[in-house]
Predict the structure.
Amino acid sequence: DIQMTQSPSTLSASVGDRVTITCRASQSISSWLAWYQQKPGKAPKLLIYKASSLESGVPSRFSGSGSGTEFTLTISSLQPDDFATYYCQQYNSYSGGFTFGPGTKVDIK
Amino acid sequence: EVQLVESGGGLVQPGGSLRLSCAASGFTFSSYWMSWVRQAPGKGLEWVANIKQDGSEKYYVDSVKGRFTISRDNAKNSLYLQMNSLRAEDTAVYYCARDGGLGPWGQGTLVTVSS
């Protein structure tokens, strides 16, 4: 099974900061990686798919990069609405399952 | 409008059973893989199961294999999760999602396993 890790687990930042979250897979997943944003009591929202493709309607301050085993989510200028928990997810194969990373909570500094 | 609406959650005793349903609308349900994802209180997201468009392939996380069964009825645009031999650690909000989460998600239904 493919395991996912994320760092950091918590990130304190200010409005306007550039924020980077890292996600690592235990084996190569090519570019089969997604990023989600989740706010308390809400379902996750897809931000990025295929490592770097921006989901329709998601602000351009969000970007994703990477391939193989190492990936990053970058928020170029943090906005008040961006304080949330972010998860990566690998979807390398339906039979292997779609493992999520443990999450990164972005809170106010 | 694309919509997924889960139902069937509730309080159940350890060892009991529950069947979750997910009603889909606004897209061609039979054209997509569908999934269940859960989130225990205060914890992260955990993929639970996937089912192929025609129901011919089903995959599960190890912790639910042999206890949970995912199924679908394309004529009714509905997805199901039959949960048997429930344990306290199955307590979570269960989300229905299209294509593993890469599409729309439902609002979730809470399953509480407790005596």
About this structure: The mean pLDDT of chain A is 96. The interface with chain B takes residues 1, 34, 36, 38, 43-44, 46, 49, 87, 89, 91, 94-103 of chain A (CB under 8 Å). Chain A is about 0% helix and 45% strand. The longest strand of chain A covers residues 19-25.
